[in-house]
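User: quick one, sequence for these tokens?
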């Protein structure tokens, strides 16, 4: 199956905590980072997710925010350090490609934000992704 979602990171489920309607799934990415995905309890069941299951974490580029350092005191728990490899800017938006341990990500942010952060190839950044914006696919 082909997808338009560019951000696809391989990992392994570490644990699943199910509630009545939603579940949190802890995933260890191939690069060693831990992330959390919040998905429906039905999706956990349908995908057969349990500790040890191989998954692909999927994130739309528009759901990846960037910071120049880790951000303490924020509810966003998925903070992946990386290095910018390319910045492409248009009249209003910028596409920022970065490498994180174990894969590559693309963030779609405003041109103004990219300029204000001084982003360029080689810049150190932290990708911020809310757990509710991560989808999982069984690998």
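Assistant:
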């Amino acid at each position: 199956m082909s997808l338009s979602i560019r951000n696809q990171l391989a990992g392994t489920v570490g644990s699943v905590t199910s509630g009545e309607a939603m579940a949190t799934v802890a995933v260890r990415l191939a690069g060693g980072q831990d992330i959390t995905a919040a998905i429906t309890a039905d999706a956990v069941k349908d995908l057969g997710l349990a500790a040890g299951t191989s998954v692909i974490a999927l994130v739309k580029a528009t759901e990846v925010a960037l910071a120049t350092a880790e951000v303490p005191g924020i509810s966003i728990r998925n903070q992946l350090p990386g290095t910018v490899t390319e910045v492409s800017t248009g009249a209003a938006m910028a596409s920022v490609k970065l490498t994180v341990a174990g894969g590559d990500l693309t963030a779609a942010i405003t041109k103004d934000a990219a300029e204000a952060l001084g982003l360029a190839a080689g810049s150190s950044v932290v990708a911020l992704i809310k757990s509710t914006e991560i989808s999982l696919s069984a690998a």
